[in-house]
Amino acid sequence: MLGICRGRRKFLAASLTVLFVPVITWIYLFAGSFEDGKPVSLSPLESQPHSPRYTASSQRERESLEVRMREVEEENRVLRKQLSLAQSRSPSHHRGNHSKTYSMEEGTGDSESLRAGIVAGNSSECGQQPAVEKCETIHVAIVCAGYNASRDVVTLVKSVLFHRRNPLHFHLIADAIAKQILATLFQTWMVPAVRIDFYDADELKSEVSWIPNKHYSGIYGLMKLVLTKTLPSNLERVIVLDTDITFATDIAELWAVFHKFKGQQVLGLVENQSDWYLGNLWKNHRPWPALGRGYNTGVILLLLDKLRKMKWEQMWRLTAERELMSMLSTSLADQDIFNAVIKQNPFLVYQLPCFWNVQLSDHTRSEQCYRDVSDLKVIHWNSPKKLRVKNKHVEFFRNLYLTFLEYDGNLLRRELFGCPSEADVNSENLQKQLSELDEDDLCYEFRRERFTVHRTHLYFLHYEYEPASDNTDVTLVAQLSMDRLQMLEAICKHWEGPISLALYLSDAEAQQFLRYAQGSEVLMSRHNVGYHIVYKEGQFYPVNLLRNVAMKHISTPYMFLSDIDFLPMYGLYEYLRKSVIQLDLANTKKALIVPAFETLRYRLSFPKSKAELLSMLDMGTLFTFRYHVWTKGHAPTNFAKWRTATTPYRVEWEADFEPYVVVRKDCPEYDRRFVGFGWNKVAHIMELDAQEYEFTVLPNAYMIHMPHAPSFDITKFRSNKQYRICLKTLKEEFQQDMSRHYGFAALKYLTAENNS
């Protein structure tokens, strides 16, 4: 838009010049041709040497005027040419509004212009900057470390994706934890026209570890200083963001500000909106040196190419070394060092309007930098209090933040029309697989679910695990949805070992879970529980995908494949670790069966021993699992033998057998074609048998199923005939696949099915 406005000014100026310069010139020449009130002829015929009024001086004057006239004519010719070019470009400028994106408020390079710009707000159409090209890639750098920061990055990225119309390239400086989480998240998110590159933050520690830092961000809070060295050498400019940022506009508007940089300006920053650097917050408060109020580094525009030429690395290091001699440590991490450099070199900074970084920190003065909340562009939650910060518009800010926090990320998978996306092998393979499906098939939705890519956020909460020295550790694996959340505390009380859980939730439900977990003393006291969010998509519950996600992300050599509705007996964790050694699970293909029981009572006095459980069985308080609904599922466990068994015993596979087992972590995955209710565990046990796993029942182990309302999927199975038909079709196809894969040995599964 600014380009259009400037074009109009140039057009008008050129037009006026072409019109008035000749007029003024001829007036000047005409006036100069009078002498003593009489006209002096410029005609060669009238200006002969014999003329009584002819003199040498008048001849020189005439020649001088003729030279000046020729110069003016030449200038007019050039102006006409420029005007012609401007006219020819003018229509395309207007057309360019449709092919280019986002004008933005004109930035400022000094404080007076800044104040004027703030007052002007968005009202002046000609106070705006050149548009960003439609398919121009915008580069964004973010430093991210740990579990909590990874969650914050997702909300930031959502706010950027929501408004964007340009391709994005995120440069993530991440530690090993954040890289694992975010790499999986973006790989499964599959957002078009978004590229992600990771840079190892742990390798950069040595670059800044010599700087003492009191800020809660720790060593990672200093890593923005080394971006010129870390990011690709051919990357010329980048927007750097803190993780606690929320965008309320298109990031392309901020990217366009780079066009306003002049001279040696290489840093785009917003003035700090607190009195921190003024040094009067409390007695003996001594901040690092800064220019006035200083600048906040939550949002930075970096001209990387110029910074490298200026030897930025050397510049900030020398400044930091000098100041640390008296300051001893930084209080605000990289921000202190940036400000110290700017104090010495004020020409480096281009001051952005404050709506590009409205800082909701303690002692903030952010309310003075905008007239209305609708003027805001970027909100920065830079107070440790985060959403509980004090501000008269905090409800507006909080609601905006929560909107993106709970926004369905699947809706952000939209294409950028007119902008070609980079070829993505995973996306192409997915499209090919889906295209091979028959949409007229009555079981199309079942088949399609097998190929659906669900956005996955690993380790949603902080996770810590110390491997057992004897290499016998066992992880309990389970999956759940929101309606089973109440089981988590009970399971944690029954199982003290590591747990891996896959939760099938929407974005909003994920935040409800987070609040639930953070409010639970039991859950917050357990750091060896990995919570992996698989976001909802489609109409089926992807039970086997969830199991596979939970299985894939265990840190122990063995796993106990359970369900969320079961409570393991007290002490089962230690019992299984001993059984692993006793039965040499490390060197044999065994599946250790934990016998399953159930109660119909919501309140149960949980048996503390096998003897107590047998007594409850005899009294009718407990039952063998699904004895009255699905006897075949657990009948091969041979509960009659288990009652008196004192040593492990082997059982053979039978049709529809689906026990809960302990296996090595390298066991086969669950088959994803089975979704919702029916055959999801049966198929897995069948494959274990096909791979010659030996089923061994543990004599002193047990688990109890707790009652709950029927799931939505089992209700569909019971009420929908087509659901049952499709499940039968999938079973037959699975058995055929087994026969092709395992050959003659797999024929028994077809025979057993026909006889059952």
UniProtKB/TrEMBL annotation:
The chain crosses the membrane at residues 12-31. It is found in: Golgi apparatus membrane. It catalyses: 3-O-{(1->[3)-alpha-D-Xyl-(1->3)-beta-D-GlcA-(1->](n)-4)-beta-D-Xyl-(1->4)-Rib-ol-P-Rib-ol-P-3-beta-D-GalNAc-(1->3)-beta-D-GlcNAc-(1->4)-O-6-P-alpha-D-Man}-L-Thr-[protein] + UDP-alpha-D-glucuronate = 3-O-{beta-D-GlcA-(1->[3)-alpha-D-Xyl-(1->3)-beta-D-GlcA-(1->](n)-4)-beta-D-Xyl-(1->4)-Rib-ol-P-Rib-ol-P-3-beta-D-GalNAc-(1->3)-beta-D-GlcNAc-(1->4)-O-6-P-alpha-D-Man}-L-Thr-[protein] + UDP + H(+); 3-O-{beta-D-GlcA-(1->[3)-alpha-D-Xyl-(1->3)-beta-D-GlcA-(1->](n)-4)-beta-D-Xyl-(1->4)-Rib-ol-P-Rib-ol-P-3-beta-D-GalNAc-(1->3)-beta-D-GlcNAc-(1->4)-O-6-P-alpha-D-Man}-L-Thr-[protein] + UDP-alpha-D-xylose = 3-O-{(1->[3)-alpha-D-Xyl-(1->3)-beta-D-GlcA-(1->](n+1)-4)-beta-D-Xyl-(1->4)-Rib-ol-P-Rib-ol-P-3-beta-D-GalNAc-(1->3)-beta-D-GlcNAc-(1->4)-O-6-P-alpha-D-Man}-L-Thr-[protein] + UDP + H(+); 3-O-[beta-D-GlcA-(1->3)-beta-D-Xyl-(1->4)-Rib-ol-P-Rib-ol-P-3-beta-D-GalNAc-(1->3)-beta-D-GlcNAc-(1->4)-(O-6-P-alpha-D-Man)]-Thr-[protein] + UDP-alpha-D-xylose = 3-O-[alpha-D-Xyl-(1->3)-beta-D-GlcA-(1->4)-beta-D-Xyl-(1->4)-Rib-ol-P-Rib-ol-P-3-beta-D-GalNAc-(1->3)-beta-D-GlcNAc-(1->4)-(O-6-P-alpha-D-Man)]-Thr-[protein] + UDP + H(+). GO terms for molecular function: glucuronosyltransferase activity; xylosyltransferase activity. Residues 59-69 have a biased composition (Basic and acidic residues). CDD domains: GT8_LARGE_C. Residues 42-69, 83-109 are annotated as: Disordered. Keywords: Glycoprotein, Glycosyltransferase, Golgi apparatus, Membrane, Multifunctional enzyme, Signal-anchor, Transferase, Transmembrane, Transmembrane helix. One of its GO terms (biological process) is protein O-linked glycosylation via mannose. Residues 44-58 have a biased composition (Polar residues). It is a single-pass type II membrane protein. Its main location: Golgi. It comes from the Eukaryota. Pathway: Protein modification; protein glycosylation. GO terms for cellular component: Golgi membrane. PANTHER family: GLYCOSYLTRANSFERASE-RELATED, XYLOSYL- AND GLUCURONYLTRANSFERASE LARGE1. In the C-terminal section; belongs to the glycosyltransferase 49 family. This is LARG1 glucuronyltransferase. It comes from Chunga burmeisteri.
